[in-house]
Amino acid sequence: MDTSAKRNLSAALISRAAPELTVVLPTYNERDNLPVVIEALREALQGLSWEVIVVDDDSPDGTGEAARALAERDTRIRVIRRIGRRGLSGACLEGFLASSSRFVAVMDADLQHDEALLPRMLEVMRSGEADLVVASRKVEGGDVGLGLSAIRKAGSSLANSLAKRILKVDLSDPMSGFFMVRRESIDELAPRLSNQGFKVLLDIVASGKGTLRIRELPFVFRQRRHGESKLDTLVTFDYLGLLLSKYLGDLVSIRFLMFCLVGASGLLVHLAALRAAMLGLALDFLPAQIVATFVAMTSNFLLNNWLTYRDRRLKGPAMLWGLLTFYLVCSVGVVANLGVANLIYGNQPVWWLAGTAGALMGAMWNYTASSILTWRKV
Ligand code: GDD
Ligand code: MN
C-alpha cells in the first residue's frame, strides 16, 4: 500500500459520524461540579452515542481548564470558551449550534438535574412523538424538592402563570433548564431567539408559536453540589423583558425595553429630586431643574449598569468614565428629543403626539449611542 492509500485508510478509520445526542453544559464557576457531572453522564449514557459540549464563559475559578483536562482524555467532551460574554441563554444557544447531532439537550452542570432521565428523553425524541421533551419539576411525580428557596419558588410560580397567560405557553414548568430538542428545530428558531437572559426554554417554545409538539417528563430537582446559584433576583427583570418582547412580536429587543423602563423610572426620580431641591434646598426652579436632571441621569446610569447591562457591568474607574459618557450621550439625546418634537408640533400641533415622538427619539438615541459609547462590547 502506498502512503496516500495508507493515509486514506487511516482517515476512514478515524473519521466518525456525529453522535446522536449532544448534551450542552453551560458553566460559570462550576470547577468542582464538572468532573462529577461528566462522570454521572458517562454512567447514565452508557451504550448511547453521545457527546458533551461545555460552554464556559471564561469562569474565574478555572472551570475552563478543568473542562479541557477532561476533554483531553475523552474526545466525546468538547469545550467552548467564550471571552467577554456572559449569559445562560447565549451559552446554550452557542452550544446547540456547535453540535451536529440529531438531538440536543441542556442541563445544569451542578448536579441539580437528574442525568438518569436523559435516555428516556432520548427515547421519546426517537419515537418521533415529540419535538421537545421537557424535564419538569411540576408534573405528577416531579418535585422542586429542596433545590429552590421559598422566594424562588414563589417567583417561579408567578412567572409560570404569566407565561401561560401572556404567551399562551402551556407548560407546567416553562422555567426548566433541563430539556431535549431536535437540532433542526434550533436551526429554524435560532434567528428569533434572544441571547440575553436565562429563559431559553420559554423562548424556544414561544418562538415556535405552537408548532413544537411537547412532552413533559417528571423529575426531582436536587440541591446543587458545590458553589452557588448564578441566578439572582435580577433575572426576574430579564424574564419580564422576555415576556414583553415576545408579546410585542419581537419588534423591540429586551434590552431596549429595559432601557425604556429605566428611563421611565428616571422621570419619577427627576420629579422627586426637583421637588426636594426646591423645597429642601430652597433653590429656584432653573438650578433645581439642573440638579434634578443630573440626579435622574445618574440614577438612570446606575440602574442601566446594574440591570440593562448587567452582562457588561462597568466597575471601578471604568464606571466613572461610563457615567461621564452617559451624561454626554443624554445631553445630545435632549437635543434630538426637542428637535423632533418641535418639528412634529410645527406640522401638527398635537401636544401628546409631538411629546411622545420626541421622547421616543431621545430614548432611541440614548440607547443606541450609550450602547456604543458607554457599554461598548469589549
Ligand atoms: N456559560 C454560562 N454563562 N453558564 C452559566 C451562566 C452564564 O452566564 N450563568 C449560569 N450558568 C450555568 C451554571 O454554571 C449552571 O451550570 C447552569 O448554567 C444553571 O445555573 P444555576 O446557577 O445552577 O441556576 P439555578 O440552579 O439557580 O437555576 C436553575 O433553575 C431555574 C429555574 O428555577 C436553572 O436550571 C435554570 O435554567 C432554571 O431556569
Ligand atoms: Mn443549578
Describe this structure in words.
It contains 13 helices and seven strands. The protein is an alpha/beta fold. A seven-stranded mixed sheet has the order 3-2-1-4-6-5-7. Helix 6 (150-167) runs parallel beside helix 9 (235-247), helix 9 (235-247) packs across helix 10 and helix 11 packs across helix 12. Residues 108, 110, 112, 224, 229 line the site of manganese (II) ion.
Distance from first to last alpha carbon: 53 Å
What's the mean pLDDT score? 87
Regions with little confidence, pLDDT below 50 for 5+ residues: none
Helix content class: 40-55%
| Subunit arrangement of the protein | single chain
Largest sheet: 7 strands, mixed
What are the secondary-structure elements, in order, as H or E?
Answer: HEHEHEHEHEHEHHEHHHHH
Count of helix runs: 13
- SS class: alpha/beta
Radius of gyration, in angstroms, nearest whole number: 25 Å
Task: Give the overall shape, derived from the CA principal axes.
Answer: elongated
Strand runs, count: 7
- Strand arrangement within the widest β-sheet reads 3-2-1-4-6-5-7
Each distinct ligand: guanosine-5'-diphosphate-alpha-D-mannose, manganese (II) ion
Q: Strand content of the residues, in percent?
A: 5-15%
